[in-house]
Amino acid sequence: MVTTLATEAPQRLDAGSSLVVMRLRLIGQMEAWTLASSSVLPSGRKTRALLAVLALAVPRPVMRARLADLLWSRRPDEQARASLRQEIHRLQDVLAPAGPGVLVVNRDSLSLRPGAAWVDVDELMHATAAHPASLALLDGELLEGMDGIDPALDTWLATERERLRGRARQVAEVMLRTQASPDATIAVAQQLLSLDRAHEEAWRALMRAHAARGERGLALQSYDRCRAALADVLDAAPAPETVALLEELRGSRPSAQSAWTSPASDAAPAPYAAPARRGAARIGIVPLAAEGGEAEARLAAGLSDALHVALVRFRWMVLVSGSAIAEAAGPPGAGSPTAGSSSGVPGGSSGAGATVGRDAALRRALGLDYVLDGSVQRAGGRMRVMLRLVDLRGNQVVWARRFDRPAEDTLAVQDEVASEAAAQLDAEVLLVEARRAAQMPAAEEDAYNLVLRAMPGMVRLERLSFARSGDLMRRALALDPSHAAAHVWMAAWQMFQISQGWAPDAAAVLADAAGNAERAVMLDPLDARGYAVAGHIRGAQGRRLPEAVALHDRALVLNPDLAMGWALSGATFAYLGDAPEAERRLGRYKRLSPLDPHAFVFDVGFCLAALVRRDNAAAALAGRAASALHPAYSAACKPYLAALGHLRAGEEAAVVLRRLLAIDPGFTLERCLAASSFERASDREHFAAGLRLAGVPEGGGRAG
Known about the structure:
Blueprint: E1 22-25, E2 31-34, H1 45-57, E3 62-63, H2 64-71, H3 77-95, E4 103-105, E5 109-112, E6 117-119, H4 120-125, H5 151-176, H6 182-195, H7 200-212, H8 216-234, H9 240-250, E7 281-285, E8 289-291, H10 294-312, E9 317-319, H11 322-329, H12 349-366, E10 370-379, E11 382-391, E12 396-406, H13 410-438, H14 447-460, H15 463-479, H16 484-499, H17 506-523, H18 528-541, H19 545-558, H20 563-576, H21 579-592, H22 599-602, H23 604-612, H24 616-629, H25 634-646, H26 650-663, H27 669-675, H28 681-693
Parallel strand pairs: 1-6, 7-9, 7-10, 8-10
Antiparallel strand pairs: 1-2, 3-5, 4-5, 10-11, 11-12
Helix pairs in contact: 1-3, 2-3, 5-6, 6-7, 7-8, 7-9, 8-9, 10-13, 11-12, 13-14, 14-15, 14-16, 15-16, 16-17, 16-18, 17-18, 18-19, 18-20, 19-20, 20-21, 20-23, 21-23, 23-24, 23-25, 24-25, 25-26, 25-28
């Protein structure tokens, strides 16, 4: 008998615990109550957002810099910090009825005392297929009414909402595959479709279950609803196995009503196996619209070509030829966004309709996943370029950027804009593709999609999701050992495993990572990312810095717009002791991709370079900023901690050291120095002295 998702009370609520002093409801309209039923919900939306961010981070602290960026991203740093201080005081006042010590305020971070609050989101995240009752808490959207406070908070909120629904979807999927009766399957399938109405496995389970109950009409109706949902959400048609099931229900094959089979046996017969999905995103660049005269027209045409050249260097993208795009899209500028239209497209609403029609035609004619379009205009002595990327599978703008440049040198404008746009699109499209892959039915798995599914868990750096990412990478390599990108990202995963202190045998994992990187380079010698990762492994972990430099330089020759290549090579030069060259390369990465999602890794290079220059204050500042981007990344803590030690910042160093030891309990000075890649003895000694002053445990013996 099925346990539905909305029948039992939550299992983990312990309101009588001496630690729990308040309840927080973040799903739906936000609520905050003490155990005596007194409301402690802040009145201001930003104060509520501050409380919500802290609640979702428990037990980890949240750096003040991160909070300021989330809530006041459009203000200067000093104003944002001052505003944050005011909100902290307001939050302390409103939480006072819950008792002392609920809000833990430190110099650089804030947190809620672990165990002080029961949070509905935490309850739901602990649901399992065996104990699914707390999924009933998901009766609304996370933090309804909190949109629009700040663009950065909106982005964070979208990520948290997807994380929450993803967990509920994961539990419901496991439940669906274990039901033993049609009635139970229908109940769970309907719950799963309420979370994801384009979940094709749930639709097939619903079709089978209705057929097994003799409800052939409802089974056929479920197919029609499935087809409509897929077209609406994904702009896709049902998979071959879904169509095969429809044919079976219509009687062209043996009746589905003859016997009930569990959704776990969802594999289609061999003739209906889904074809392997191609391993790349298909992108088309629509000829840019030119507002003005001949100079703008030349720049628009040249920039379109420069964008194509820049993007084609990213090997996991497929760029459709400009002539094919121009033929399918119509005249240059048709439906492209312009700066002079409030709607963002020429001609207002009619322009929007033309854009939608153009995009649909491009998807039908060329099978595109994305189109990049935009406009060029001159204003005085300035040239403005506006670009946007549209995901055609959902008709969503997933990236948009405005570039303002001096108008004297149009060739320089073309090169700069194309380089920066390509670097940023590389990161953005990978994120979009990863989210899409996470929603794909298991039957459509291939190496490309398995790697994409692994990426979010890899960079989240939570032990369970990180381990699952490794499993997905291994499955990808088992399916396709010749997939170069799978070897690259497996090597990257192994590097994270080593740096976090999670490798069971660091030397063996390092050797395997080096083998994966070398295999990737051999399989695709034109992929710059493979050389960049191979160089990082040789340098940052293997202490073979001259070889690392050669690999990094090869990567940057192949793709001078690869932000990762500049950042990782910058770290290599820091280890060599060449701080000026390190900072030049790191600066190039930052100009190319100032909001890179992997900045928490790349920005550690700034901290290393400052340590090499013996500018401990700058190193601490850079380390603090990198660590704020991802407090769970241990590699950012180590040079940051060394700088704090030299500055005698004992209180801050103690906080960072506790965080580092929570991530890697076996971390010692001896082990750290054994793995250190600093080439010069003086740099190693400076690093060691800082760590020792910061209180890092020595280990088996003094080193360095």
